[in-house]
Amino acid sequence: MKFIKIINKKYRQGLGIAAFMSVIGVFISCDPALSHYEFDLPETGSIADATPPTANFSATQSSIDYRIYNFSNLSVSATTYLWDFGDGNTSSSLDGVNTYPGEGTFTVTLTASDALGVESTFSMTIEIVEPEAPAAIVPFIKEASFEDNSPGSEDCGSGNMDGRDCWRISGGRIFGITSSPVRTGSQGAKFDAGSDRVAYQALTVTPNTDYIVTVYYTIKTSPVGSAMRLAILGNAISNASEAEDAIIASITGDNQDDANEYLPLVLSFNSGATDTIAIWIDSNNVAESRIDDVSIILAE
């Protein structure tokens, strides 16, 4: 250090500050013992990261499949992203979407980076629970007992409504009304012999659900060979001519033992993929037939 002090004194007297610093730099670089005087400096022209990235996102569960989550990227000042969905799946997309294997708790992490390599992370824990299936619809059958101004009549017209107005279909001849015999109330539906009478009503149902439809029928004892048919159409129709092609289930009743006794005609069916079905009732027109009290319930 004595030698350095001598040089220091000499050059402070004969040289400027710049020359002095140059000489000191030479001695430091040549003497390993002086390496502890070194220190790091920023690269030429470099500046601090004034806008470092901030990672953030929101999560939304799909309304179609409870296992699917959509993640909206809310990060700022970032150029690249890495998603870790917590189930082993990853993604480098701007926004994330993931289908989870099932119920469980998962930690989702987003790492956001900028062009300088600065990173920010944000994590969120989501819990996936399979929702309970909504209760199946039990349809309401309008004018189910064919009474005038009965519940539902107001939806099928105005004024003094008779018990047939909710059962009409274009292209089909509506049934008649009978007052005797009836099963309940004061009126039933009458299907005359030799006449193509029909009953039709569209209903809203829950898809892929089992239902049971019941209608009570009676047929005059002669002529023999008569039958009533209860059918379910897999969709609503606009004309009676479309009915046969739309039938997905049907059952026939042909008991002619007692014209005054109403017997149940019970039909089970599954609604399939549709949310609209229709009840269709007709006869083969051999003998006069009657029906009353149409109902629909969920199959257990």
From TrEMBL:
Organism per entry: Gelidibacter maritimus
Identification of the protein by name: PKD domain-containing protein
Keyword Membrane: yes
Residues of the PKD domain: 77-135
Highest taxon in the source lineage: Bacteria
Keyword terms of this UniProt record: Membrane, Transmembrane, Transmembrane helix
Residues passing through the membrane, by range: 12-29
